[in-house]
Amino acid sequence: MDAEIESGEFVCIVGPSGCGKSTFLRIVAGLIPPSEGVLSLGSDGGQAPLAAVVFQDYSIFPWKTVEANVRFGLDLLRVPRHEADTRVERSLSRLGLTEFRKAYPGTLSGGMRQRVSIARALVTEPQVLLMDEPFAALDAQLRHLLQDELLELWQEDRRTVLFITHNLDEALLLGDRVLVMSARPGRIVGEFKVPFERPRSGDIRRSPEFAAMESEIWDLLRSEVAAGIPATGGTKVPA
Question: Which InterPro entries is this protein grouped with (predicted)?
Fold first, then answer.
């Protein structure tokens, strides 16, 4: 099954562990070449970088301050200093990092470090934002908080986002569409258009429609998860 992502669309991909979700994202990012198939990325013709990536493990430089980490991509792009200063200030403010600008990553919580990663990606104003399970390492409360913050940030500029997650709740809250991948070798076996209107907030988690759609996607995903579990003689995936 082919997949097409429209400009300004927030698309979430879910699937069993090891099915190739992160590999696919790295192919889109240009970090590894595809072994087969065709990937086509359109550009809007502007000067902004085509893509920026936010990884699960933060991937920020421990020897650089928060401010220097956020500025790093702009330095690589040779953005003029005055413009870079303005963009860094705006990005620090949007992610609640202004008062931590001189801090080093080792002094920050996991949630704050992930904010730095997101700020560093957004400050370059990429045409496509690629996010590989960015909240997976966080506790449930902090994860919900950052999901809501990302939702607000995205609704400000409607940037194209490809978001990898194991969490159906997260996919339905954030996405315009949810693509379901099969067990390895991964392929797209389902596509769900999320019906909840924009702008939306975390309050939709409480609606019966949200629960019903989460259950519908799980009905498809459950068999793929089971297929990816090595046989142990008695392991079953709960209904």
Answer: AAA+_ATPase, ABC_transporter-like_ATP-bd, ABC_transporter-like_CS, ABC_transporter_ATP-bind, P-loop_NTPase
- Note down the domain range covering 199: 1-46+131-239
- Structure-block tokens of residue 159: 């940037």
Per-residue pLDDT of the chain (239 residues; tens, 9 = 90+): 578 889 999 999 999 988 889 998 998 888 888 887 777 777 666 666 788 999 887 789 999 999 999 999 999 999 999 999 999 999 999 999 999 999 999 999 989 999 999 999 999 999 899 999 999 888 888 889 899 999 999 998 899 999 999 999 999 999 999 999 998 888 899 999 999 999 999 899 999 999 999 999 999 999 888 876 765 554 454 44
The span from the CA of 77 to the CA of 84, in Å, is 10
DSSP structure string for 55-79: -TT----TTS-HHHHHHHHHHHTT-
Task: Give the neighbor-by-neighbor strand order of the sheet with 160-164.
Answer: 51-54, 128-132, 160-164, 10-14, 177-181, 188-193
Residues 161 and 233 in one domain: yes
Question: How many domains are contained in the chain?
Answer: 2
Q: What is the pTM of this model?
A: 0.88
Which tokens belong to 74? 């702009």
Do 178 and 239 belong to one domain?
Answer: yes
